[in-house]
Design goal:
The structure is a homotetramer. Helix content of chain A is 27%, strand content 38%. Chain A is built from seven helices and ten strands. Chain A has helices spanning 3-9, 68-75, 84-98, 157-162, 189-197, 210-222, 227-243, and strands at 24-38, 46-58, 81-82, 103-116, 123-136, 142-155, 169-180, 202-203, 247-256, 264-272. In chain A, strands 1, 2, 3, 4, 5, 6, 7, 8, 9 and 10 form a ten-stranded mixed β-sheet that branches. Chains in contact: A-B, A-C, A-D, B-C, B-D, C-D. The interface between B and C is large, with 38 and 38 residues.
């Protein structure tokens, strides 16, 4: 039986009036699991398993949003491939379906990059958590952002400097938010992720044979970095993008899972003006 | 440069002797991200993003395992599709490569099932977390197990019984471990998951229109279940499989995220004899 | 041996110059476990187990912060009781020790409130996660904020309206950030938490006997609320505080762990102007 | 109004008959937050914030357990101090109240130990997650177990051996389950935790000044350990306890958060015969 027939029978509470005079800037659903196809730089699109958040604003006079329409809008794109056009389309669809002033979607998924070990040249895929956001504002302007969680190694300059031998090192997480100005094409993750990774002491690799492990150990020792250094070097890299107009703003957070403590060392850096809260 | 050339130069510490006389039953890697293709009941294989654990035993006289070989073994199956044959092959490969007495692999991933809403008939994919385990023991016997995390709703019989109207209900998680006897074919997730789900008060659905929401609300109210009931009903279902020889053992854990408390109500039930610790 | 003696021998890398011209607005440590005593409204201070974050800014010309001084500053307050005076003191100490322009501390801990069941009157403690933040800015102005995670139940108005009987309900989390104007006294958690909780369909209780369970079931059924309603009612409550000057700004996020879906329904509302990013 | 008066009015569903002939070995509540006082080796008891699990068995003929009695039993011990006597009492109370054949309680909390830096001698508290379990079986025999999560550093022997300089190292987690034979006294955490920690390459410390950081860096470099080594050395330590009859069984799991990979290296070892499933 169609939904509209039932509408005559079933009251639509969400669509009724609200008198509290409080507009909500963001209402929606979070953690919707959805199979999402993503365009790679080369080769066929890959399938990912996205965790999706969808929001719309709710004007002061309306009681609630029709939550099922978020999931329906997502389902309309079941077979599409994630790229900027699809992002634009989906927030546009969302805005119409939700009868709202704006619409927001966030896709969180793992992107696999082939990682080649430095000496043995053996290749294995490394999974990088990323997020892609699309937002259509009240003036129908489209905005987007992308987030990367790049894992790498930091080796402590102080520890190296003061010790007879050795230097403590550890896994670190570099979280980068970019607000690109290009509304036509997504950045290729294959291009951006290595740039971020290169700012750490050395990258991590899923597959390392002994010659690779030697290379990685010595490279890190030759390239000690505080979390402050990583934040600055990633910052410097994206400051150039900002000056070149490639992005409108960005944020960096570096977290080092210190091997000498049971707590984390962290450093933050932001620059530019994100056009929306992502 | 090939790894073997370097072996002449680089000492192989893991392969040296150990004198502590302590065998380790399980050594390996955990949380390796890996793109895995999985056979569906109908249609083409789907791509998932698996989180993989690989282990082998370590005899008392050997100092360590060669950890990179775990990841290499996994990489050999980069293009394969997960089914029982592939599982058998991969633990066999692992056992040879690790030069161990046994080998164990666990794939954790999200499996998508199309879920059809009960009245509107609208379809949307629902992601179900599953795990598939393969184990080749010291006698070269192959064993396997599979785990499901099925989310559904429980509605409280007591609350319904004693109240003038309403009944508290909540999201619940039904975790099932099966140790199948069939070493040729995986169970189709499409067959097993609905059976488990049917033991709750009502299933969850990613997409519900108002007529569906009415149906789901009334169905749950008609079908109140304590966590004890769900554990028993899932238990009863799989006791039949056990008696029929379809499985060698199983375990159930039901967790209800009680809406009247900020803690969980739980119930456990096991039966049969798992042939290995999975 | 004292640290200063070693300073003559050990280079102080963090204190050297940096030429990248990138100031970092926040550098520090996160997830430091610390036993913290907290003032209750009545009775003796309670001991909590706090998870602490400490930051300071890093000017462009300095290479790094001296991370150990964060933990040392925390240790100086080992025996103090958390109240506004202690918060002011600790960020002041931090700012001096770090030789920075600002200093920030965040204490995350569980606060226990005695919860009395509505009919049986039986009392049991309920643990509420809270965060307390203190910030001393570059002009030596002190700011603070406090965050609450209040768990309660929401019952769906739509489900109630359209169904012959029953109504789906679930556990919900109401996250509130307050930026108080009072720089002398902390709000008593005992006062604020019940106000927030009262905006849901009904509160959760650690201990409910059958008469209580009946009361809670019927109360929720009489008081259906969308997440939008809860966000608006919590928002309305704190809008009054804002108008009265009791707070400078606030934020609300309501998350409902829907019992009919395996995803969450959410609503956000903010108002006022937080004086810092907390 | 008293609960007993209402019992006459309110049906007691959990106490009714069940005909499915399925006994459940474990039914109860999980994640109950509870303020717990714990006896220290020296000094006054400390307050912790425990996360508590309570279970009882459910015989085949009974429909459900009375969940509120778990929390009530816990509340009876609100002011008690955790030691073996209290553990014995509480499972005994639980067994009577639940009218069950057995009763099980698990307290998960953070235990703080003062950690002294090796050179500067500065002291700061380090939080160690622990679990304490008590179990009263169908024959009224009392059993107990205790779990520790000790964080420390592992430095890779292979990396050290093959590299010109440096050696990758990382934070590691050593999880130990002990099944003590002593039914009178808890082990002092202050005694056990340092023994476990000493099996890693070096301990972690909350507070390290530069001379300490040098000491820790060099100590780790002098003491390289694979996860296999740590598992064996912890295993060897507790094998002595087992032979001496101090414990009935134990289990070890070592997890190394490898700084060269974005996955973990792990090793497991068990010995003896745990008298119950904890």
């Amino acid at each position: 039986m169609s939904e509209s027939a039932h509408c005559d029978i079933l009251p639509d509470l969400q669509n009724s009036n609200d008198v509290r005079n409080i507009p909500l800037h963001r209402v929606g659903v979070e953690d919707v699991l959805f199979p999402l196809r993503v365009q790679q730089k080369e080769g066929r699109p890959i399938n990912t398993q996205a965790n999706v958040d969808l929001y719309a604003n709710l004007p002061a006079d309306k009681k609630g949003v029709n939550m099922s329409r978020f999931v329906e809008s997502l389902m309309d794109y079941h077979n599409d491939i994630l790229n900027v056009k699809m992002l634009r389309d989906i927030v546009s669809t969302l805005k119409k379906r939700m009868e709202s002033e704006d619409a927001f979607i966030r896709f969180n998924f793992i992107y696999f990059l082939d990682k080649q070990a430095p000496v043995s040249k053996k290749i294995a895929p490394e999974g990088v958590p990323v997020s892609v956001v699309g937002f259509l504002d009240a003036d129908d302007n489209f905005h987007r952002s992308v987030r990367f969680y790049v894992f790498a190694q930091t080796l402590c300059p102080c520890s190296k400097e003061i010790s007879k031998y050795g230097a403590h090192n550890q896994r670190a997480k570099i979280r980068v938010d970019l607000y690109p100005s290009n509304m036509k094409h997504l950045e290729w993750f294959e291009d951006v992720i290595p740039l971020i990774e290169a700012q750490a002491s050395v990258a991590t690799y899923p597959l390392l044979k002994r010659p690779d492990e030697k290379w990685v150990t010595e490279k890190a020792y030759d390239n000690p970095k505080f979390v402050e250094d990583v934040a600055r070097d990633v910052g410097g890299l994206f400051n150039e993008w900002l000056e070149g107009g490639r992005i409108l703003g960005f944020g960096v957070k570096v977290v080092s899972y210190e091997s000498i403590h049971n707590h984390q060392a962290v450093a933050y850096y932001n620059n530019g003006t994100p056009p929306f809260k992502g």
